[in-house]
């Protein structure tokens, strides 16, 4: 029985988006790509190009900030707000110190007048009152009324007119209230406040501790919010990105280009295979898998030049992907070092227990920080070569075997030093095997817990590769869940440009 248009729209779009989040190619069909697009957040609608106002741009920026923050809170268990002061020797830090000192010196001079001038102090009490009230949970009416009553600035001003302000009494009340509201980690700070006699220094330290309490409250809120975000993150991120797309129609341009490049790579690969296969029909249009297109696009991110802007749909995971790339580069060099050493020295070390692990332990410290601009990889590889030769000779000596002669040592060190060169055969081989392993990881169903087979030459880094592979697959699978509908629309347009456009794409305003 045929479905009506709306049912067909939701069903087809849902099926397509689910397909992009799975590794099964059989669920894709031409019919899926010709179906209507739903206008719901789960199936993003596209809009015609339009000029946007500054307010619309700022609204999109706020949505992106909210999306990025929510994503980081949900996926990063260690994410928290930190209280970090400006460096003292920096210009901003120096300016801050000068301005703050001038403010507190001015306050001290006012309070030392006869009679004292309380206006600036009253403004501080007003600010402290607002901060304390912000810490209260809904329903804390008694302490709320008490704070408002004690720190009633109108009353304090009346007392100041008659020189009857008990400023120390107000400060003590504030400290006691802070002690009731603060986290246990701030108990020592509260004790130090109670031991401070100078009223100006006391007020300054009260604000310092209040700032710390704000950070504590923010982190407490994050901690409570995290489980909720984890449960609803897919829908939240998809909805937020749809809002960004409505405010900024060009918000998928880089993503479209990223997918387009992956399609071109796949077409080129299929074309090469067809030309090398006898009897292949060169006139037929090649059929490529959308899942394979996406997976190859994700694999490119492991070799991405992060000086370039990453596709918009991956911005929230840019830092994690960059860290993965850097760790994989480090592991690639270690695997190259071990393979070169085994091939150069041969059977004399192959059977030595844990020898590859020893080479890894030698290499790792020398490769620390290799992602930094100041890191000299050639120098590090030279140092690794020297250490490896020393380790090999020590092992050979311990077993009564002749050590490496000068020529073999020079050959071994030279091969290790050349790992960094472009098109180095050993580096290219290890890189292909790492890519093969990661591709197999993406091909696994998300519910399958077993690891793909480790390619030869990577056994020394197997533990690290499986850990990074799990992290990588987790990032990719979540990204597919969130942005699958967006990818489906892009793939539909790029793979089947002659197909009729979906309802959301044809029924757009003409203005």
Sequence-ordered SSE layout with sheet pairings:
Elements: H1 5-20, H2 30-34, H3 54-75, H4 91-111, H5 119-134, H6 141-150, H7 153-161, H8 167-181, H9 187-194, H10 199-247, H11 253-276, H12 290-300, H13 318-345, H14 347-350, H15 355-366, H16 377-398, H17 406-417, H18 425-443, H19 462-495, H20 503-506
Helix pairs in contact: 1-19, 3-10, 5-7, 5-10, 8-9, 8-10, 10-19, 11-12, 11-19, 13-15, 13-17, 13-18, 13-19, 15-16, 16-17, 18-19
Can you describe what's shown?
With 511 residues, the chain is mainly α. It contains 20 helices and no strands. It has helices at residues 5-20, 30-34, 54-75, 91-111, 119-134, 141-150, 153-161, 167-181, 187-194, 199-247, 253-276, 290-300, 318-345, 347-350, 355-366, 377-398, 406-417, 425-443, 462-495, 503-506. The model is unreliable at 1-52 and 502-511 (pLDDT under 50).
* Secondary-structure-derived class: mainly alpha
Distance between the termini: 38 Å
Outline type: extended
**What is the average per-residue confidence, as pLDDT, rounded to a whole number?**
79
Helices and strands, in order, run as HHHHHHHHHHHHHHHHHHHH
What's a quick, concise take on this entry?
This protein has 511 residues and is an all-alpha fold. 67% of the residues lie in helices and 0% in strands. The chain has helices at residues 5-20, 30-34, 54-75, 91-111, 119-134, 141-150, 153-161, 167-181, 187-194, 199-247, 253-276, 290-300, 318-345, 347-350, 355-366, 377-398, 406-417, 425-443, 462-495, 503-506.
Which labels suit this protein?
single chain; 511 residues; mainly alpha; 0% strand; extended; disordered C terminus
């Amino acid at each position: 029985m045929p479905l009506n248009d709306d049912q067909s729209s939701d069903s087809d779009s849902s099926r397509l988006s689910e397909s992009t989040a799975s590794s099964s190619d059989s669920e894709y069909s031409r019919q899926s790509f010709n179906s209507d697009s739903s206008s719901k957040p789960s199936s993003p609608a596209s809009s015609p190009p339009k000029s946007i106002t500054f307010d619309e741009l700022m609204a999109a920026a706020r949505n992106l900030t909210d999306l990025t923050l929510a994503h980081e809170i949900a996926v990063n268990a260690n994410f928290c707000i930190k209280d970090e002061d400006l460096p003292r020797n920096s210009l901003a830090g120096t300016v801050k110190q000068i301005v703050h000192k001038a403010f507190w010196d001015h306050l001290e001079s006012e309070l030392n007048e006869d009679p004292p001038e309380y206006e600036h102090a009253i403004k501080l009490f007003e600010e402290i009152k607002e901060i304390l009230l912000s810490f209260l949970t809904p329903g804390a009416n008694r302490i709320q009324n008490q704070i408002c009553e004690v720190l009633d600035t109108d009353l304090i001003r009346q007392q100041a007119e008659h020189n009857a302000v008990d400023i120390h009494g107000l400060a003590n009340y504030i400290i006691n209230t802070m002690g009731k509201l603060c986290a246990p980690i701030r108990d020592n700070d509260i004790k130090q406040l109670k031991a401070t006699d100078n009223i100006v220094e006391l007020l300054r330290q009260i604000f310092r501790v209040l700032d710390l309490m704000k950070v504590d409250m923010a982190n407490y809120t994050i901690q409570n919010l995290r489980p909720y975000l984890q449960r609803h993150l897919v829908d939240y991120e998809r909805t937020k990105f749809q809002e960004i797309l409505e405010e900024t129609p060009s918000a998928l341009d880089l993503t479209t280009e990223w997918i387009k490049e992956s399609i071109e790579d796949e077409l080129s690969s299929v074309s090469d295979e067809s030309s090398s296969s006898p009897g292949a029909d060169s006139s037929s249009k090649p059929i490529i898998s959308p899942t394979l297109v996406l997976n190859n696009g994700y694999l490119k991110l492991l070799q991405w030049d992060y000086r370039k802007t990453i596709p918009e749909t991956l911005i929230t995971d840019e830092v994690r992907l960059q860290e993965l790339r850097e760790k994989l580069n480090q592991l690639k060099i270690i695997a190259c070092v071990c393979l070169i050493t085994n091939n150069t020295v041969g059977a004399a070390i192959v059977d030595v227990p844990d020898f590859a692990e020893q080479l890894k332990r030698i290499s790792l410290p020398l490769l620390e920080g290799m992602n930094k601009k100041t890191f000299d990889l050639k120098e590090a590889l030279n140092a690794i070569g020297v250490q490896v030769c020393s380790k090999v000779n020590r092992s050979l000596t311990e077993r009564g075997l002749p050590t490496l002669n000068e020529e073999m040592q020079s050959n071994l060190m030279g091969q290790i030093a050349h790992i960094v060169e472009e098109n180095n055969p050993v580096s290219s081989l290890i890189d292909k095997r790492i890519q093969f392993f990661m591709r197999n990881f993406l091909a696994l169903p998300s519910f399958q817990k077993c690891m793909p087979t480790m390619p030869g030459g990577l056994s020394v880094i197997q533990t690290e590769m499986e850990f990074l592979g799990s992290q990588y697959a987790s990032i990719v699978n979540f990204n597919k869940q969130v942005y699958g509908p967006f990818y489906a629309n892009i793939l539909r347009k790029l793979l089947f440009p002659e197909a009729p456009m979906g309802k959301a794409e044809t029924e757009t305003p003409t203005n």
